[in-house]
Amino acid sequence: MQYVDVQGARVPALGLGTWQLSGLECRRTVQAALELGYRHIDTAQTYANEGDIGIALQQSGIDRGELWLTTKVAPSNLRYADVVRSTRDSIRRLATDYVDLLLVHWPNPDVSMNETLAALQHLQEQGAVRYFGLSNFTVSMVEAALQSAPLFAIQVECHPFLPQKRMLSLAAGRELLFTAYSPLAQGELADDETLQEIGASHGKTPSQVALRWLLQRPNTAAIPKASSSEHLRENLQIFDFELSREQVARIDALGDHPKRILDPPFAPQWET
Fold it and tell me: Which of 38, 47, 131, 181 is catalytic?
C-alpha cells in the first residue's frame, strides 16, 4: 500500500468509498476489503451505513491504529451543538473511540462556517477527531475556511474528466490531503480510448490507469467504491507500474473540458 504523508499523518492512498452500500452488502464489502489489505474506509452520516461499518471493523480484529476512518457531518447537522452530538453518534455507530478524519459533507449557506469550524476544533481538542476538513466546497470557500481553522483535508469529485487542478494546487500549497471521490467517474472511464490505449501498454484496465494517474499527483488519496471482490482486488493492483510523463500529459488533456458527474441541487456554485 502507498501512503500519503500530510501534516505528520500517514494516510493510506487508496481507500474504500461506501456510498450506496448498506446492510449485509456493506458489511461483507468492508470485510472483504480489509482482508485484501485496505486500511482506509470512507463513510458519512447520510450514507446510513456507519453501524454496518462498525460491525465489520469489530469483526475484522484489525488493530484500530492500523485503520484510517473518515466520516462526514451531514449539512443538516452543522450548528455547533449538532456537529458535536451527531459526531459522537457517528463514533458510537462506528464502534470506535475516535475518527481519524471528520469532514463537513456539503456546505450549508444557512449556517456560519465559523460556527461549524469551532465545533470541529472542539471535537479535535476532546480527542474525538484527529483531523478535520471539508468536502464539496469550492476553492474560495476552502481558502476562507483556512483563515479560521487548521484544516487537514479537502475531498471533491475528481477523475480524468474533472481534474480539479485549482483545488489540487491549493492542497499542495497548504499541505492538505486531497481526496478524490468518484475517481472512476462512476464507470464512464471504461470506454475512453486514451485510457484503454495507455492501459494496454501496461497490461492494466482504464480504471487502474485512472487510479494510478491520481496517486501520482501530490498529496492525493482516492476512494473508489467497489462492491465485488474482483473490483476491490483490481483497484489495489495499481502499485506495480508507473505512468510516464507523456502518458500523464495525455490523461491530463482529458480534463480540458471538465465533466462533473455529481451535481445535486444543493451543491454550491462551482468555480471553473
Answer: 47
